[in-house]
Amino acid sequence: MALDMLASQMDFIILLTISVIIAIVVKKYIKLPYTIALVLFGIVIGFFKLTHIELTKEMIFFFFLPPLLFEGAIHFDLNHLKENFKLIGSLAFFGIIISTFVTGFLMHWLTGIELVYALLFGAIISPTDPISVLALFKKFGVNKQLSTIVEGESIFNDGTGIVLFTIILGLIETGHFSALEAAKEFIVVSAGGLVVGIILGYFAFQFCKSIEDNTIEVLITLVLAYASFIVAEHTFHVSGVMAVVAAGMLMGNTGRRLAMGPSVRIAIFSFWEIMAFIINSLIFILIGLRIPVTQVAAYGYQIIIAILVILAARALSVYGISWLLKAFRYPLDARWIHVMNWGGIRGSIPIALILGLPAIAYREQLSVIVYGCVLFSLVVQGMTMQPLITKLKIVKRTKEEKDYEYLFAKRVALNQMEDEARKLKREGRISDEKYKDIDKKIVADLSEVNKKINKLDVRKDIYHHRVSEVWHELLLLKKNIYMELANEGFVSEENLARLISEVDKKLDEEH
Known about the structure:
With about 500 residues, the chain is mainly alpha-helical. It has 2 domains: about 1-390, Na+/H+ antiporter like fold (Up-down Bundle), CATH 1.20.1530; about 400-510, no CATH class. The protein is about 85% helix and about 0% strand. The protein has 21 helices and no strands. The radius of gyration is 25 Å and the shape is globular.
């Protein structure tokens, strides 16, 4: 037993070391998305049976998934979520339902799989995983709103997909189905998960508020990520995914603003960046390791049909919902819709769900088809995202715009350094003499940066672009202030509605 455990630990260390080597090779020598390189290398390891680690449902759900969800949620700006909630909510809820049923009916019609099992396949394969896509977005500086939509949909559609999967699997196992009961279960499980996450997140940031210790606060967030999932799933039998997302967003927004100093924020976000790298490295290499290459080849015809079906279902849900929202004057660039459609890459959630299937009819067939679809999605869709982004000219930044971005970041940082230095002086943590020396350095650097920015501001397109962005952020800040005043009882609901309506009108004019 001890030897087996030691062997497993050694396997994990070896896989993590290989992941680091792959990351270095991909960054320096090969123009290939990191996650795709991991999957392909995992297939090679699996083919030669170089490791004995088995990817299980429990490993994905209770070890990998909570930190991955939490890391995405803690970085997610609630202001951007509110701004894009109609589209994100529609794609994450109605989009998954449409995709599940379209996939199910088409698979039943084209392959002869019984309808209820075909619908189960639809629920398994519909949730998306944007890790590869978001890495490309970050690399090329893709519009923040588009990144928010893609990431937000993925964060929330995991919960929708898992609940649908549970309902359809329950129908298969019991032979009983009630639309009313299913809808009720969906609402209770999803809302219950959000409530659990909010409550635990609130207590976590209250703990953080009472202390100022980087290590302890980092550990609080780690405990919160796992505790919110486990408490939601095992104590209250609601959605652990929704609980983690809610807890992460609360800590990343309210907690960051009210309970974390600058050094704590840096420590927490640095920790979660490293955590995400480790988890992603292991999960994608293990997905490759788990893919049964010979069986995938044997089911090749059905896998090709399934790939075409899920692409059609994804297109129908994305283009249909986007068209409907645009008909109600929701502003959306047509090029973004193409990226959202093709960027619906499948990853860890379908693998986790298929690994958790009990002994039911079509189990082996569905498993192999899911692996084939995930492999196609990660490799083919993942590798063609960059050419698509380039072809659609979504990123069109000039050298001057890149320089402006660089200088803008420096100016924001220097201004915040100046504010922090004043605060330290006011609290008596540095002497007047030291403050003068520090302030002199900051002012000199700030003056130099402002001179360079003023030269770039001569370019009208850059100037107007930045003014538009800043104005947009200020309008969102105004909206938040109104809401906080209402929460504190200084503004009535009637006046809040009028004030919010005025801001929303100005935001619409910006588009």
